[in-house]
Write a structure and sequence with these properties.
This protein is an all-alpha fold. It has a single domain, classed as Orthogonal Bundle (MetI-like fold), CATH 1.10.3720.10. The chain has 13 helices and no strands. Helix 3 runs parallel beside helix 6 and helix 4 crosses helix 6.
Length: about 280
């Protein structure tokens, strides 16, 4: 076991404290700013003065509650479809040998490297052809392009490391491939499923460009677009207090989810990195 000197311990914890401060301070200051109004926003203060007017205004001046519900529906649908399709694809790519498997995996990874702007016009034509423009299904279909490649890649890496004997024993007992995936592999893939599911949720929750392009009415918009379109009394005046309050409202759930599942996220993302 490594024994650190007092100086090394002090340097280590000082570095950790500095990293935490740099990471957490922007969000903390956003919380402080969310309680301010008018010219007080430009006064530098570090202690919050509780004033819920901005938070009340966010929900009364626009359908922000509906926007949050839209984001939740889209994010949960994207996570469910990504995990379901990604799990079956990972089984095929990770456990079944066929010609072109490596090329297919590279193609799946390459799809995630395209910037959203590069595929925006093609995705718009697809959404219009499907007749789902200005609807939540349009956002679900579009976000799948962002989350599915990553999900397939991570789950495939995890699937390859599972013992082959489990699969062979299940087939000897008469199990079908679907039963093997559902009853044998799925219980073992909790960390990987949690990690990819949470990251897919964050991507779908924060996605802006597709949500801005494929929605038209306030009732169909998700929270990133709703926050970006918050306006003040005139086009030259932005209610920064309302914007900060809305940003805090939509960020807190993500922080809570990450803190709840942080161990599973780390174990899921590092799965397959070290072979025993």
């Amino acid at each position: 076991m490594m024994h650190w000197s007092p100086i090394a311990k002090a340097a280590f914890f000082s570095l950790v404290g500095l990293i935490v401060l740099i990471s957490a301070f922007p969000f903390y200051y956003a919380v402080v700013s969310s309680f301010k109004q008018g010219s007080a926003l430009f006064d530098v203060t570090y202690l919050p003065e509780p004033n819920l007017r901005n938070y009340v205004a966010v929900f009364t001046e626009q359908p922000f509650g509906r926007n949050i519900l839209n984001s939740l529906l889209v994010a949960f649908a994207v996570v469910t479809l990504s995990l379901a399709l990604g799990l079956t694809a990972a089984y095929a790519l990770g456990r079944i040998r066929f010609r072109g498997r490596g090329a297919l995996l590279v193609t799946v990874l390459a799809v995630s490297m395209f910037p959203q702007v590069a595929v925006l016009s093609g995705m718009f034509e697809l959404i219009r052809w499907l007749g789902i423009y200005n609807s939540l299904p349009a956002l679900i279909v579009a976000n799948m392009m962002l989350t599915l490649p990553f999900t397939v890649w991570v789950l495939t890496t995890f699937m390859r490391e599972l013992p082959k004997e489990l699969e062979e024993a299940a087939f000897v007992d008469g199990a079908t491939p679907g039963q093997v995936i559902w009853h044998v592999f799925l219980p073992l893939m909790g960390p990987a499923m949690a990690a990819t599911g949470l990251l897919s949720f964050i991507v779908a929750w924060n996605e802006f460009l597709f949500a801005l392009t494929f929605t038209l009415s306030n009732e169909m918009r998700t929270v990133p677009v709703a926050i970006a379109l918050i306006t003040g009394a005139s086009q030259y005046e932005l209610p920064w207090g309302n914007i900060m309050a809305a940003s805090v409202i939509v960020t807190v759930p993500l922080i809570a989810l990450v803190l709840m599942f942080q161990r599973r996220i780390v174990s899921g993302l590092t799965a397959g990195a070290v072979k025993g």
